[in-house]
Write a structure and sequence with these properties.
Helices cover 39% and strands 14% of the residues. It has helices at residues 9-16, 20-29, 48-57, 66-77, 81-96, 112-136, 148-158, 174-181, 194-206, 264-274, 297-305, 355-371, 388-391, 409-433, 451-457, 483-488, 548-555, 558-564, 585-625; strands at 6-8, 38-39, 44-47, 164-167, 186-191, 211-215, 229-234, 276-286, 309-314, 328-333, 344-349, 378-379, 383-387, 448-450, 460-463, 480-481, 511-514, 523-524, 531-532, 536-541, 579-581. It is globular.
């Protein structure tokens, strides 16, 4: 760890909620402002503790929760966020077992009071989970973790159940946590980065999950050599140029042949197969070029011939890093040596749309195929069980989009007409939906209260965000409102096991706000029956003090987005810092009605954009195939 936690002038500005010019003025006008302790003349660095003390004395420092304060100090004092969290995690694990682990690092010692306070408040596991949430937010020095929704889909495809799972490229452990949520009884991992391996292992230990995470190079130094598991789920590194192909040329893991130097991802696929029990499944996230690169043609062919490769699934762009590439999922199954290979492999093209919408459809198609692998699964433009003999052509190209049946041409014309009619109807309604507003005669005015202050006065109740849980799936239970549902403005679509640690029913008039999102979003609950999902704040207004639509409209302003976003600059929001204008209840209701109409206008605009894009594609496809013809008036 560094000698002192330091902070730049830009970070001081974000900490105090002001511009950088204000910090420059403080340095010039206040002789007691802390002197730089490092950096350069152009970009000085200051002692974080001294700056906090000065800001607090000046009344310029917003009060932070213990977890926020501890994380900020920890991130500033650590070589990396992972190293800092691992050091605190070791202390919390020792505390959960009734002991202390020697003397902490000198730079960790000043943080012990906050560590103890957070552990007293939430318990060692809860304290670690609070810090983990802050570590998991995107930011400098933090690796791209596999998103939870994608990890859950991968675990679902592997059909983990109560079996054992291995992730040979563990990272910070997102896939292992998904396996635990799905009911896995033992999880194992290996990770090249020692700090990340330690973190993933600490999570397992603090949650009493049987398993082990080892540090090391998986391909060169397999920590689990000779061990087989029920499922392997993995997000391997892409495009590695130095993965050990020379020293591993005759490795026994290459069960379908020596892996070419330019195909490192296929080495990971064979590594996974080598650790599977017969009949077990592996799911790997792959770059799309692995499905068609010429150098990998022989390995792809052998995986198909021997019945190991069961499905290739094209995902929407942006589901994981690198976000601009539409990645693939490969589903492998360890086939028995004497079993006849299946006659078909499943190819799914889910590259269009959003993962939250397509994941259930992907799982349904895979399960239907797995139940009858020689059946004729076919959904036009989406999924097809392709004969293996058809795939074993000159290229052995497994790109799903190139093997899908075309959409029926006759239906294209009818669909185009219906889409055009729906678009015209919505566009015609837009002017009536937009609320009418006039400039205030005296300009903006009024006083404001923060959400935290409103909660203290009883004007609202602040609940959440709900932390992760490991409940058993209950497909017939109530639905769960997810972050994606709130951002899309749709009804609750999640399941009771969607990573919630407690069940909080939502009521009409509740206001929900995602803790992590690209922009601050607030939605009013309009129907009962759903449960609060993970990473959502719930604000329950007192109807005698606050109108819910007024509250939601006040929260989603640009000013509140800046006011409540985290110090690191990531889009993690502390809604307690958001400000709400003080107005009498009758004026709130008038503003709330305008905000409600504005939300309806926003939903209509969003649907207009979606229908417009669909109409463009349908028209282009129909004209190109001859399914529709110009009407003679086109110019």
């Amino acid at each position: 760890m560094q000698e002192n936690p330091t902070i730049t002038a830009a970070e001081i500005a974000r900490l105090a909620g002001v511009g950088r010019a204000a910090v420059s003025n403080w340095r010039k006008r206040h002789s007691d402002f802390p002197a730089p302790v490092g950096g350069t003349t152009a970009s000085p660095e200051f002692d974080l503790i001294q700056v906090e003390q000065w800001l607090r004395a000046q009344g310029k420092l917003p009060e932070l929760a213990t977890a926020d304060r501890l994380w900020r100090h920890l991130a500033a004092a650590s070589d990396t966020p992972a190293a800092g969290l691992a050091a605190v995690g070791a202390l919390l694990l020792a505390r959960s077992r009734g002991s202390r682990t020697g003397h902490p690092d000198a730079q960790l010692a000043p943080l012990l009071p906050d560590v103890d306070a957070l552990a007293d408040e939430l318990g060692p596991q809860g304290a670690f989970d609070e810090l983990w949430q802050r570590f998991s937010a995107p930011g400098p020095g933090r690796p791209f973790a596999t998103p939870d929704d994608l990890a859950d889909l991968m675990i679902g495809l592997a059909n983990v159940g109560g079996g054992s799972v291995l992730d040979p490229a563990t990272g910070s452990g997102a896939i292992l946590r998904a396996a635990v949520r799905a009911g896995s009884t033992a999880v194992y991992g290996q990770e090249l980065d020692q700090d990340l391996a330690k973190l993933a292992g600490l999570w397992l230990a603090l949650h009493d999950v049987p398993g082990e995470v080892c540090a090391g190079d998986t391909l060169r130094a397999d920590a689990f050599a000779g061990r087989t598991v029920d499922a392997i789920v993995c997000h391997p590194p892409f495009g590695a140029t130095n993965w050990g192909d020379e020293e591993l040329g005759h490795d026994p893991r290459w069960i379908v042949g020596t892996t070419p130097r330019t195909e490192p991802e296929l080495a990971w696929a064979q590594h996974a197969l080598a650790h599977l029990r017969v009949g077990g499944h592996a799911v790997l996230l792959m770059p799309p070029t692995v499905a068609s690169r010429r150098a990998g043609k022989r390995i792809r062919g052998e995986l198909l011939r021997r019945g190991h490769l069961r499905a290739v699934i094209a995902l929407p762009p942006g589901v994981a890093a690198p976000h601009g590439v539409p990645l693939h999922l490969w589903v492998l199954r360890r086939a028995a040596a004497d079993a006849p290979p299946p006659a078909r492999a499943l190819l799914i093209d889910a590259a269009g749309g959003d993962l939250a919408d397509t994941a259930p459809r992907v799982l349904a198609a895979w399960r239907a195929f797995a139940a009858a692998p020689d059946g004729d699964v076919e959904e036009a433009g989406f999924a097809r069980a392709v004969p293996v003999i058809e795939l074993l052509d000159e290229e052995v190209d497994l790109t799903p989009a190139r093997r899908q049946p075309a959409v029926v041409g006759e239906a294209t014309g009818e669909h185009l007409v219906r889409t055009r009619e729906r678009l015209a109807a919505i566009v015609g309604e837009l002017p009536a939906l937009l609320p009418h507003v006039t400039p205030a005669p005296s300009g903006p005015e009024g006083s404001f209260l923060t959400v935290g202050e409103l909660a203290k006065t009883g004007a609202l109740q602040l609940i959440g965000p709900v932390r992760a849980g490991t409940s058993t799936p209950a497909p017939d239970g109530p639905s769960v409102l997810t972050v994606q549902d709130v951002l899309a403005g749709v009804e609750a679509s999640g399941r009771v096991d969607d990573r919630i640690g407690q069940e909080i029913p939502l009521a009409v008039g509740d206001v929900v706000v995602p803790m992590i999102a690209r922009q601050l979003t607030a939605r009013v609950v309009t129907a009962e029956g759903a449960l609060l999902g993970r990473n959502l704040y719930l604000l329950r207004p007192n109807p005698t003090a606050l109108d819910p639509w007024f509250l939601a409209g006040q929260l989603r302003t640009s000013a509140n987005e800046k006011q409540s976003s985290s110090l690191s600059g990531t889009m993690r929001f502390d809604i307690r810092r958001a400000q709400v204008r003080r107005l009498p209840l009758d004026e709130q209701r008038a503003h709330g009605a305008a905000f409600r109409r504005l939300e309806a206008f926003e939903a209509a605009v969003r649907e207009t954009m979606a229908l417009g894009a669909e109409l463009i594609q349908l028209t282009a496809d129909g004209l190109a195939r001859g399914a529709v013809l110009p009407d003679g008036d086109s110019r």
